[in-house]
Write a structure and sequence with these properties.
The chain has 270 residues and is an alpha/beta fold. It is 49% helix and 12% strand. The chain starts with 11 loop residues before the first strand and ends in a 5-residue tail after the last helix. It binds NADP nicotinamide-adenine-dinucleotide phosphate (NAP).
Length: 270
């Protein structure tokens, strides 16, 4: 028998990166469903702005914390002690684009620390609290670039491939504990992170979704306790093509990549 849709009303949900973009849209959408949202990010003002956008009367908490530090993660754990935790959404992330030869060590370390190491450590740290919930779930916000290795996003793709691998492995590991794991893979979305690759949008014919639409799809996926959430549209086809005929995707993206290379060589380096 299919499981009933999970009601989000009254659920305690941690959202990392809730101060902007997809994280903010998720906070608004989940709070609108009656969830209690715990907003995490490094900028207090950005979190306050998100809190202002929540429906009146909703229960929320802001936690100013850096998820890449043990102290930041400890603050998140502490903030959940009293009211418990039902769902952790690992949304905070950074996007790096451009030629790999232009990527410095500091940026590379920040990318891997934020997109890979921190979500793994945060799940581990919150497991004891998640185990106390009657319907616990971890939601990892990946990307279609976690399936499709895209030129000029090599390190970012590697981080999202890692997050997808983590999600698959943990889904199997945590099934015994009754903890569900969802991997969500949005396509390009109109956020601050996307500003960093705006020069690649037209050459690669990317379509930018609005954060609210992405969040709505993810919330429906959470309610349905989906293992994976992918966008509709051509990207979904490309994900399948990547799995079945990777050589075709290789040739198509390499050809496009050759055309774009000169543009990137002219990009000012940070
Ligand atoms: N935009 C896209 O095209 C796209 C497509 C697919 C997937 N995604 C994924 O969607 C997620 C959200 O990105 P977005 O597009 O909404 O970008 P965004 O607006 O830049 O949001 C990223 C958020 O992460 C937070 N953050 C970054 N480092 C952090 C840290 N160390 N500790 C705590 N919070 C941190 C940032 O807040 P603070 O700076 O205040 O900490 C920011 O609010 C990311 O995982 C991204 O990879 C984005």
């Amino acid at each position: 028998m299919p499981r009933s849709v999970m009601l989000l009303e009254g659920r305690s949900i941690v959202i990392t990166g809730a101060g902007s973009g997809i994280g903010r849209a998720l906070a608004v959408a989940l709070a609108t469903r009656g969830a209690r949202v715990i907003l995490v990010g490094r900028r207090a003002a950005a979190l306050a702005e998100t809190a202002m956008q929540l429906p009146v009367g909703v229960r929320s908490l802001t936690v100013v914390a850096d998820i890449t530090t043990a102290a930041g993660r400890a603050m998140i754990v502490e903030s959940c002690r009293n009211d418990g935790l039902d769902i952790l959404i690992n949304n905070a992330g950074i996007v790096a684009s451009g030629l790999l030869s232009d990527l410095g060590d500091a940026e590379l370390q920040r990318l891997v620390a934020t997109n890979v190491a921190a979500p793994i450590a945060l799940i581990r740290d919150l497991l004891p609290l998640l185990r106390l919930s009657d319907r616990p779930r971890v939601v990892n916000i990946g990307s279609v670039f976690g399936d499709i290795g895209h030129p000029y996003f090599a390190a970012y793709c590697a981080s999202k491939f890692a997050l997808r691998g983590l999600s698959d492995a943990l889904r199997r590991e945590l099934a015994t504990d009754g903890i569900g794991v969802t991997y969500a893979a949005p396509r390009a979305t109109r956020t601050a992170a996307a500003d960093g690759f705006s020069d690649l949008v037209a050459p690669f014919a990317m379509v930018l979704d609005e954060p609210a639409a992405v969040a709505a799809r993810i919330v429906t996926g959470i309610e349905n306790e989906a293992d994976t959430i992918y966008p509709r549209g051509p990207e979904r086809l490309f994900v399948w093509l990547q799995r079945l005929l990777p050589g075709v995707v290789d040739r198509a993206l390499a050809a496009k990549g050759r055309k774009v290379r000169r543009l990137l060589e002219a990009r000012p380096t940070a």
